From TrEMBL:
Name by which UniProt lists this protein: YggT family protein
Pfam families: CCB3_YggT
Domain of life the protein comes from: Bacteria
Record bears the keyword Membrane: yes
Lineage of source species: Bacteria, Bacillati, Bacillota, Clostridia, Eubacteriales
InterPro entries assigned to the protein according to its UniProt record, in alphabetical order: CCB3/YggT
Signal peptide: none
Annotated keywords: Membrane, Transmembrane, Transmembrane helix
Length: 149
């Protein structure tokens, strides 16, 4: 039987980073949804005396207030077109993207060369000494090549 070298790529990821990115995405998505509700309620002239609408405006005012005055608000029928809310949404999206990129998935790649015959091996403990010797030789050659570069 003839030994064939196969190149196998092994990917390792950090699951803690993935979890942190998901939590950040959820928090920023909820904030974006709340700002979107504010925009739609203002646009369609929702009753500000309603407790839910009043609470929503109260929660979002500190975040939207820093952007008010950049562009003028426009009355649109019974509602108000408030560009400050749209600016806050864009800033929130950019901040979310930047923070998530800090915790981007770092993928480590490791290449392994496996010597085997044409039939796949199911039990790695049943390797022959010949296969192990070929594998060691391939690893040594790889280390020499990396040293030369």
């Amino acid at each position: 039987m003839r030994d064939v070298q196969k190149k196998r790529e092994v990917k390792e990821t950090e699951t803690a980073t993935d979890t942190l990115r998901r939590v950040i995405r959820i928090i920023f998505s909820l904030a974006g949804i709340i700002l979107l509700f504010r925009f739609v309620f203002l646009l369609f002239g929702a009753n500000p005396d309603n407790q839910f609408v009043d609470t929503l405006y109260g929660i979002t005012e500190p975040y939207v207030g820093i952007f008010s005055g950049i562009f003028p608000e426009t009355e649109w029928g019974r509602g108000v077109f408030e560009p400050a809310t749209l600016i806050a949404l864009v800033v929130l999206f950019i901040a979310s993207w930047l923070i998530q990129s800090l915790f981007a998935k770092r993928t480590l790649r490791r290449e392994e060369y496996v010597a085997s015959d044409h039939t796949p091996k199911e039990d790695p403990s049943s390797e022959t000494t010949e296969d192990t010797a070929v594998r060691e030789k391939v690893k040594e050659e790889k280390v020499k090549k990396e040293g030369e570069e």
